Amino acid sequence: MFGYRVPAPNEALLISGRKQRGAEALPFKIVTGHGVFVAPIFSRATRLTLSMQEAEVMEDCYTQQGITLSVHAVIAFKVGDDHESIASAARRFQGDQRQMPTLVGRIFSGHLRSIIGSMTVEAIIREQQTLADAIVDASKTEMARIGLAVDSLQISSIDDKGVGYIRALAAPHQARVNQEAKVAQAAADRASAMAQQESVRHQAEYARQTAIAQAQYQAEIDQAQQTAAQAGPLAAARAAQDVLAERAIVAQRNAELRQAELIAEVIRPAEAEAERIRALARADADATKLSAEAAAAQGRIALDQAIIDKLPEMLRAAAEGLKGANVTVLDGAEGLNSVVASLAAQGMTMLETLRTGMRVEAPPAKPSMAVAPPPAA
């Protein structure tokens, strides 16, 4: 927007041209952190940097012993953040802000000469941070008066301009350092030599152990070879025995197998055939015996039939003989049954007598031809 100004984060906006209220009012208005409207023609806005700046000091200073030292220091400073510091800096540097480092360098040069003049070279060399803090403390009042604040001061270098005083001060320390360095180097060399000796000893011991191990290994190899050479014939004989034993086992197994084959192929069939022939012979003999018995039975049956055929006639003749006989039957029916039973008994007796007398002997059976089994293999 036309007439509207916004200061950057690291700067302050100074607006002048309008009368400020109050007895202690500033001739300008300070604006930071926000924008403001600046009326054209009636007001003017300028900017004051608040960023960090640097000033260098290189000054020849005299110490308490009268020795000249060339001191180089670097000061980091900036405008204070409060309105009072901004106003003080604006009154002095608003026209030319490039004068800030020059003025700061002059201020610190005076304090640097003053403080170094009260110190010895040894103190300055040993206590550089104390020297820097003393210079900052001495300059705070003047720096605050012009609205500046010091962040840090670093002493970059201190030189005696070729006099050699600082070198002389460092000589004892350097000598001690050199001596300690030599001692350390000697100790290191000694340790290195001892380490080398130890390494050589270890290498020799390793070589000796290796030689012993190799000798033992070779002896074991020789012993093994000798044992193998001596055991060769014995091993061959044992191997031959083992082969013969295996062959005997194989031969025995082959014989058993052949025997089993013979039993299966010859003996078992022969035994089966012999058993068949014996069975046939027994069957033939049994058949012959049965035929003879059947013939005898048939003869007996024929005889019995003939006798039975004659029995009625015989009984009739017996009855005829009894017809004219004076026989008295007692006991009625029971007596008659007894007479009939007696006649039947006599008939059976006669029948048995006739069977005995008329039995014809059956011709003897022909013996069967039995085949003897073949002898066992």
TrEMBL record:
Tagged with keyword Protein transport: no
Molecular function in Gene Ontology: protease binding
Keywords tagged on the record: Membrane
Gene Ontology terms describing biological process: protein localization to plasma membrane
Span of domain Band: 9-189
Main location: membrane
Entry GO terms, CC: plasma membrane
Keyword Cytoplasm: no
Pfam families in UniProt: Band_7
Subcellular location as annotated: Membrane
Family: Belongs to the band 7/mec-2 family. Flotillin subfamily.
Name of the protein described by the UniProt record: Flotillin family protein
Organism annotation: Paractinoplanes tereljensis
